[in-house]
Amino acid sequence: MRTVVLTMKASVIEMFLVLLVTGVHSNKETSKKIKRPKFTVPQINCDVKAGKIINPEFIVKCPAGCQDPKFHVYGTDVYASYSSVCGAAVHSGVLDNSGGKILVRKVAGLSGYKGSYSNGVQSLSLPRWRESFIVLESKPKKGVTYPSALTYSSSKSPAAQAGETTKAYQRPPIPATTAQPVTLMQLLAVTVDVATPTILPRPSPSAASTTSIRRPEPVGHRSQEMDLWSTTTYTSSQNRPGADPGIQRQDPSGAAFEKPVRADVSLGEMDSWKPGSVLLDEGRVPKEELSTQSLEPVSLGDPNCKIDLSFLIDGSTSIGKRRFRIQKQLLAGVAQALDIGPAGPLMGVVQYGDNPATHFNLKTHMNSRDLKTAIEKITQRGGLSNVGRAISFVTRNFFSKANGNRSSAPNVVVVMVDGWPTDKVEEASRLARESGINIFFITIEGAAENEKQYVVEPNFANKAVCRTNGFYSFHVQSWFGLHKTLQPLVKRVCDTDRLACSKTCLNSADIGFVIDGSSSVGTGNFRTVLQFVTNLTKEFEISDTDTRVGAVQYTYEQRLEFGFDQYSSKPDILNAIKRVGYWSGGTSTGAAINFALEQLFKKSKPNKRKLMILITDGRSYDDVRIPAMAAHLKGVITYAIGVAWAAQEELEVIATHPARDHSFFVDEFDNLYQYVPRIIQNICTEFNSQPRN
């Protein structure tokens, strides 16, 4: 018996050892079969911004073609997270335009991002942003695991967006301290729960009635209508009523409109500039951002439409409340279509009646969303339709640096008029044009034949707009057709190449000074001449896109002191003028004109007015007639200033016709400064007298 027991124990031990050896061998075989998963580099598009990706450090693959300017980049070396990841990689030189793999690492936000042009990409500057990133070559660190799939903060798939409606009916999950395996029955229970959402009760009719109140509207100057409109579209599409024989128009439309109840905002509150309106992150998290991870960053605006825009809206009594509402809807549509932002278009609103008033200026609202909200709160002021007074107000007050005006952006005014103005607009519009303001006119429901006797200034729109070629004018037959002007208007105001009135007498010229450096001038008088040149130059707006300045000094010979493309700022130009050294020698004015045509004006831009300002103190040793004629044939407008012993008849030959406006004689060098205002006035008068068609 004992032998049997021992035999059984031995058998059990033997079996255990066999199983143990088999298990170890099986584990070895299994470990041989399991391979470490291969790292897959996720691919992204050129337009993906770093702020959209939650991962703090990751490797991605960029496609080709990310050098395109539409993929915006902000910063140099360290980029704001609002930048295109791949665009920043090309800008930094880590990638070329053919694409490839890069390593991206998130870093802290900065208080200032410096823009620069590098590797075919123009990076923009940015005051501040809450998060930054740097781009490196895709060399993974040892021991660091990089994600094969990126986690995005806001880009949702259509399925995820569709699922948001069912999330509201799901039961909240029960919090647990440890992760528990999910059984098949639990999964089925969850599925059933999602499939049978809780039915929410509908609001009672009495509750709904408190949100929309119907009330009759008082009779206005030109219309009697119900102020019951919808926040989006009208519930009636009746044709506009015909005009009565008098000035007043009656609107028999009985269409019902619903108007949400909201508090009015006073003009004082809306007119004040608040730094918080600039929605660039300052380190504080907005309340909206606390409620969702999918908050889109605020747009910096469309850089292809960088304009400073003022809307002059008609708040006169004659327009009525419903038409005023339609007017605001157009403004909101324009604000949305323009993509408002500090790097693109900015927009302010002025309402006119008896007197104009600014609702908000260019820097009050720095994105389309806030601007649309502010437009919704505008209330009608009433009064007459004094458009001329409003245009004068905008010219004097609106486009200032304090109100957010940018010297690099064209100034545009869109005037909306119901019928016709009650004052004259021609003189006010002329001054606006000469100030560089591009005026557009939208005239709605113009005067009928029997109303034209009441129009103060016939053909007022053509007298007001920047050019009379039809580009700046819109004539709308009915208020219900006003929405059709939205897209054409946005397209035209953004076409900065055709905004002709942005060019003024002070910002659109290539000015070449031709300075007599002969022995008769002398060192002291030569410095006086240079001061005269400095005083003239100070009157112009100097930049590489505005007025440019060059200078030639001559005796028997000629010397190019500096060309049009050498300096692009006023301080640099003024310093260059101071450094011009006195040459001394003879006086060959004819040869100097030819030299200036070849060395200066041959390099003038086609869209610039060419102005030659020649200063001499004596008669030329060579002929000036043929060179002067050559200058005229090449479109160079020549001003001839003679001092002391200069020959009057020679000045008149050199000067552009009529000579009385382009030639000046000064008895002493010390009196040159007195002629600066007159020369500037003549330059501007000639510029502003150009045809407006």
Automatic annotation (TrEMBL):
Intracellular or extracellular location(s): Secreted, Extracellular space, Extracellular matrix
GO biological process: extracellular matrix organization; positive regulation of cell-substrate adhesion; spinal cord development
Residue segments, region Disordered: 154-174, 201-256
Gene Ontology molecular function terms on file: glycosaminoglycan binding
UniProt domain VWFA: residue ranges: 308-493, 510-683
Compositionally biased tracts (Basic and acidic residues): 214-225
Ranges for domain LCCL: 40-133
Top-level taxon of the source organism: Eukaryota
Pfam families in the cross-refs: LCCL, VWA
Gene3D superfamilies for this protein: LCCL-like domain (2.170.130.20), von Willebrand factor, type A domain (3.40.50.410)
InterPro entries reported in the protein's UniProt record: ECM_Assembly_Org, LCCL, LCCL_sf, VWF_A, vWFA_dom_sf
PROSITE patterns: LCCL, VWFA
Biased composition (Polar residues): 154-168, 229-240
Keywords from the named record: Disulfide bond, Extracellular matrix, Glycoprotein, Neurogenesis, Repeat, Secreted, Signal
GO cellular component, one term: interstitial matrix
Keyword Secreted belongs to the record: yes
Region forming the signal peptide: 1-26
UniProt subunit comment: Binds dermatan sulfate and chondroitin sulfate.
Reported function: Promotes matrix assembly and cell adhesiveness. Plays a role in spinal cord formation by regulating the proliferation and differentiation of neural stem cells.
Name listed for the protein in its UniProt record: Vitrin
Source species: Papio anubis (Olive baboon)
Name of the coding gene: VIT
